[in-house]
Amino acid sequence: MGKTEYRNVRLTEAAYRRLEMRKQDGESFSDTVERIAGERSLLDLAGILSDEEAGAIRGAIRERDEQSRDRLDRLSEQLDS
Protein backbone atom coordinates (compact mmCIF):
# COMPACT_ATOMS: atom_id res chain seq x y z
CA MET A 1 0.00 0.00 0.00
CA GLY A 2 1.30 3.46 -0.87
CA LYS A 3 2.40 6.14 1.50
CA THR A 4 -0.32 8.60 2.54
CA GLU A 5 0.29 12.17 1.44
CA TYR A 6 -0.71 15.06 3.67
CA ARG A 7 -1.56 18.67 2.88
CA ASN A 8 -1.81 21.63 5.22
CA VAL A 9 -4.98 23.69 4.99
CA ARG A 10 -5.52 27.05 6.68
CA LEU A 11 -8.93 27.68 8.18
CA THR A 12 -10.37 30.65 9.99
CA GLU A 13 -11.28 29.96 13.60
CA ALA A 14 -14.98 30.10 12.66
CA ALA A 15 -14.50 27.57 9.83
CA TYR A 16 -12.53 25.28 12.15
CA ARG A 17 -15.28 25.38 14.78
CA ARG A 18 -17.95 24.57 12.16
CA LEU A 19 -15.88 21.64 10.90
CA GLU A 20 -15.28 20.45 14.44
CA MET A 21 -19.04 20.55 15.13
CA ARG A 22 -19.65 18.27 12.10
CA LYS A 23 -16.96 15.81 13.21
CA GLN A 24 -18.41 12.52 14.44
CA ASP A 25 -17.02 10.30 17.19
CA GLY A 26 -14.04 8.33 15.98
CA GLU A 27 -13.64 10.46 12.86
CA SER A 28 -10.45 12.27 11.93
CA PHE A 29 -10.74 15.73 10.40
CA SER A 30 -9.79 14.16 7.07
CA ASP A 31 -12.65 11.68 7.44
CA THR A 32 -15.02 14.56 8.22
CA VAL A 33 -13.94 16.57 5.19
CA GLU A 34 -14.27 13.53 2.90
CA ARG A 35 -17.78 12.80 4.25
CA ILE A 36 -18.94 16.40 3.91
CA ALA A 37 -17.35 16.88 0.48
CA GLY A 38 -19.17 13.79 -0.74
CA GLU A 39 -22.58 15.15 0.26
CA ARG A 40 -24.88 16.26 -2.52
CA SER A 41 -26.24 19.75 -2.68
CA LEU A 42 -29.98 20.30 -3.02
CA LEU A 43 -29.10 22.25 -6.17
CA ASP A 44 -27.90 18.97 -7.70
CA LEU A 45 -31.51 17.79 -7.55
CA ALA A 46 -32.97 20.79 -9.40
CA GLY A 47 -35.02 19.70 -12.40
CA ILE A 48 -35.02 16.02 -11.48
CA LEU A 49 -38.82 15.91 -11.02
CA SER A 50 -41.53 16.93 -13.43
CA ASP A 51 -44.01 19.59 -12.27
CA GLU A 52 -46.61 16.84 -11.85
CA GLU A 53 -44.30 14.70 -9.69
CA ALA A 54 -43.30 17.71 -7.59
CA GLY A 55 -46.98 18.61 -7.10
CA ALA A 56 -47.80 15.08 -5.99
CA ILE A 57 -44.97 15.16 -3.45
CA ARG A 58 -46.08 18.58 -2.16
CA GLY A 59 -49.62 17.24 -1.77
CA ALA A 60 -48.40 14.19 0.14
CA ILE A 61 -46.32 16.40 2.44
CA ARG A 62 -49.31 18.70 3.10
CA GLU A 63 -51.51 15.69 3.86
CA ARG A 64 -48.91 14.29 6.27
CA ASP A 65 -48.60 17.70 7.98
CA GLU A 66 -52.37 17.85 8.44
CA GLN A 67 -52.42 14.32 9.88
CA SER A 68 -49.64 15.25 12.29
CA ARG A 69 -51.46 18.42 13.37
CA ASP A 70 -54.68 16.46 13.91
CA ARG A 71 -52.84 13.87 15.98
CA LEU A 72 -51.17 16.57 18.09
CA ASP A 73 -54.54 18.26 18.61
CA ARG A 74 -56.06 14.97 19.82
CA LEU A 75 -53.13 14.35 22.17
CA SER A 76 -53.37 17.89 23.50
CA GLU A 77 -57.09 17.46 24.16
CA GLN A 78 -56.42 14.21 26.00
CA LEU A 79 -53.82 15.88 28.19
CA ASP A 80 -56.15 18.79 28.95
CA SER A 81 -59.01 16.52 30.09
Describe what this molecule looks like in 3D.
This protein is an all-alpha fold and 81 residues long. The protein folds into 2 domains: 1-39; 48-81. 60% of the residues lie in helices and 0% in strands. It is built from 3 helices and no strands. Residues 60-81 are annotated as: Disordered. InterPro entries: Put_antitoxin. Keywords: Toxin-antitoxin system.
User: What pattern of helices and strands is seen along the backbone?
Assistant: HHH
Kindly report the average pLDDT value.
92
Q: What's the domain count? A: 2
Number of helices: 3
Share of residues in strands: under 5%
Shape: elongated
Distance between the termini: 68 Å
Topology:
Layout: H1 13-22, H2 29-37, H3 51-80
Keywords:
toxin-antitoxin system; Put_antitoxin; 3 helices; single chain; mainly alpha
Short description:
The protein has 81 residues and is mostly helical.
